[in-house]
Write a structure and sequence with these properties.
230 residues; alpha+beta; Aminopeptidase; 9 helices; 35% helix; globular; acyltransferase; GNAT_dom; GNAT family N-acetyltransferase; Acyl_CoA_acyltransferase; acyltransferase activity, transferring groups other than amino-acyl groups
Length: 230
């Protein structure tokens, strides 16, 4: 039966091997009507601009997604960039793909696909492996020397956006996160983008603090819930 409220996500359904849908919640919806239609899916992503007073044990709050943004200005952002370019380069064949995939998994420590323990078919690994593979194919991966860290980015309509960012556990507390973001700013600015956005999770306070220290401001907050059919 075709759902009236919930959009079927064909890509996610094929990747995970079961019916997946999503819904953008609004004030006219009721939990009871949602649960009736959600029974046709194994997993439904619920997105809301506000916290939802949902009572069903099948629905869990899995993420509060925040998006930061910054207007890039060459004269302010890229002084001393030549030093960064010596230690951060575009991903090439010489780097180990296995290590890059490891870093991709590290970047998703707070991911809703990892937080939601009800998903036990390697959904997190499937999604993040596909994410890094796509970034590589598009030439949108920057790596730190010795694969100390990496950052990916996407080119959107009118702005660029950070995708994955991670520092190897053996190389943390060496300012690589800041350097990787700075290098990504430089790269997307060269490609003609003056606005860079960075999504993260509100639970990831170290990342939130870093972005604010680097001049990023909060653009949007979204509450995300997962319905999981038991």
């Amino acid at each position: 039966m075709q759902s009236k409220l919930i959009q079927t996500l064909s890509f996610d359904s094929e990747l995970f091997g079961y019916p997946v849908g999503k819904i953008n919640w609004d004030s006219s919806m009721t939990e009871a009507s949602f649960l009736v239609e959600a029974s046709n899916f194994q997993l439904v992503y619920i997105f809301s601009e506000h916290e939802l007073p949902l009572s069903s044990p099948d629905i869990l709050h899995v993420d509060t997604k925040v998006i930061f943004e910054k207007n890039l200005k060459a004269e302010e952002s890229f002084s001393g960039i030549s030093t960064l370019e010596e230690s951060i380069q575009k991903y090439g064949e010489k780097e180990t793909l296995q290590t890059l995939q490891f870093l991709a998994f590290e970047s998703g420590h707070y991911s809703r696909f990892k937080v939601d323990s009800r998903q036990n078919s390697q959904e997190f690994e499937k999604l993040y492996k596909l994410w890094i593979d796509k970034a590589i194919s598009q030439g949108n991966v920057l790596v730190a020397e010795n694969l100390s860290g990496m950052v990916t980015f996407d080119e959107k309509e009118g702005f660029a956006q950070i995708g994955l960012i991670a520092v190897h556990p053996q190389h943390r507390r060496k300012s690589w996160g800041r350097k990787l973001i700075h290098a990504a700013e430089h790269e997307v600015f060269k490609r003609g983008f003056s606005l860079l956005k960075i999504p993260t999770q509100e639970a990831n306070s170290p990342a939130m603090n870093l972005y604010q220290q680097m001049g990023y401001s909060l653009d949007k907050k979204t509450f995300i819930y997962h319905y999981w059919r038991v």
